[in-house]
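Teaching soon. Got one?

===
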Amino acid sequence: MTRITSIVITLLLLMVSVSGLQAQKATDPEVILEKMQLANNYFMEKWPDVGKTIITNRERPSNIWTRAVYYEGLMQLYSIDPDQRYYKYAVDWGEFHDWGFRNGNTTRNADDQCAGQTYIELYQIDQQPERIANIKECIDNVVEGEQNDDWWWIDAIQMAMPIFAQLGVMYDDDKYFEKMYEMYMYTRNQHGDNGLWNPEDDLWWRDANFDPPYVEPNGEDSYWSRGNGWVYMALARVMTIIPEDAPHYDQYLSDYKAMTKALEKIQRVDGTWNVSLHDPSNYGGKELSGTAMFVSGMAWGINNGILKEKKYRPIVEHVWNTMAIHCVHDNGFLGFVQSTGKEPKDGQPVTYTKQPDFEDYGLGAFLFAGTEMYKLMKK
């Protein structure tokens, strides 16, 4: 062996060793928590005023869906790291908005209702009636009506569906479970030509504009990563809230398992998922928000004995390593988050350094993923 060859082999072994140590460190429970704290602290320091309006292409109030998803994630972090700063930050947000919504209590828009998920969680911690009054009135209005087609885009499943589950459990009233099921199944089987769920691929079209004959550049069906992520995370969240003997639990579980198998087959080599799940040539590359939702759902399945740990743990560890090492900046900023939109081309290019139009929902998804990974690695 020549001296040069020996040096090359030594360097390669060193690189493998460092890589292994880095991967091991990234999945250590304490390090997972540190990454979550880092990303969350970055956001809280950037947005110290919970009521500050969000200005992108126009001005929006801070109780819109993007911020509501962040607070959902913050409550996940709070569940494993009960820092009173997190609780106060969430309460201050709810109080600033009088525990209400962008378009009042009569809104049927799931994006408006999303804030109610955190309002309910905060009510469960401290049962002050004003925390829950508006969201209950809003959802009761939906439950009492005959309309079931509110969730015409699949993101809405995450924005609103868990609220029905929360209220059904809190009030021990199946009417919330039944309405939740009717609305979910309408989206699944009736919106568009034959519903937004494709049983052939076990994935979802974002809305009726993307079901056939619409196709991606490679001729495949259009399955947007984050759209499917919303559904996948929502199913796990709903099944966390409702008991296993609740009406229609088996339907949600069946869809969750089918999605899991479908997602496993199309994962990128680096552990993430492309924005276009069946067309890697259409803006292919890392994307954090959808990826975080998928790892959150898979890790949840392992933690709850639904997915086989031997098979799925290596998958989620690989994903978390990629996110933690290659997406989180030293200051906590999250790279590779696709901006808001409804399809792969929106918010492009997605890069490590690009600032998305909204940072909050990507962070919310990351905190969901980190919480489930923390629980898994603590087992």
In short: The first strand starts at residue 54 and ends at 55. The radius of gyration is 21 Å. The chain has one domain: 37-378.
